Write a sequence for this structure.
């Protein structure tokens, strides 16, 4: 349960077991850290995004969910749904600098790599708002529920060796710690 350094050690968190750092395989934008489960099609993305001052705290995580749906071309009726939005109690978070924290659970029907095949993915989003740094920290846990046989992800079906759990995602959110505020410029 040792915290893993993120963004060159400016942040850290306890990452789930069997996590592969995708930056070792391909280029990742500077504002992201991306991990994939070694044996499933699950992924975890930590993203530093612009603080959306015009969006109320209680609506911000839904705003980011819909933004992701747009990027995933999953905005048509029936291709995305929010099932829950809850406030995360600040005393349970290591990131004491956050103004408010939220967790959303929803589903999106998405395709990978612009394929025709669509997969049903549960998205668990954590949003930690840092207005003093003009930053929202967005953590996305992609947990596929149904993978099309025509998807490039189909090879991961049936290999679910100890998939990540929502509890591991919540532990990541709770252990996220800021070590160097210079990360935000």
């Amino acid at each position: 349960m040792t915290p893993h350094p993120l963004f060159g050690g400016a942040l850290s968190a306890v990452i789930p077991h069997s996590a592969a750092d995708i930056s070792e395989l391909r280029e990742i934008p500077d504002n992201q850290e991306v991990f994939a489960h070694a044996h499933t099609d699950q992924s975890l993305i930590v993203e530093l995004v612009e603080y959306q001052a015009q969006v109320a705290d209680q609506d911000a995580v839904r705003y980011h969910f819909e933004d992701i749906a747009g990027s995933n071309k999953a905005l048509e009726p029936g291709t995305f749904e929010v099932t829950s939005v809850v406030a995360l109690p600040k005393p349970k978070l290591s990131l004491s600098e956050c103004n408010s924290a939220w967790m959303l659970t929803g589903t999106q029907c998405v395709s990978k790599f612009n394929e025709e095949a669509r997969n049903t993915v549960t998205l668990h989003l954590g949003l930690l708002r840092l207005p003093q740094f003009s930053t929202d920290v967005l953590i996305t846990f992609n947990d596929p529920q149904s993978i099309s046989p025509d998807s490039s992800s189909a090879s991961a079906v049936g290999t679910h060796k100890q998939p990540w759990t929502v509890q591991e995602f919540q532990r990541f959110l709770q252990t996220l710690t800021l070590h160097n505020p210079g990360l935000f410029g």
Q: What stands out?
A: The domain at 4-147+165-183 is CATH 3.40.1000.10 (Protein Transport Mog1p; Chain A). The chain has one domain: 4-147+165-183. Residues 57-71 form the longest helix (15 residues).
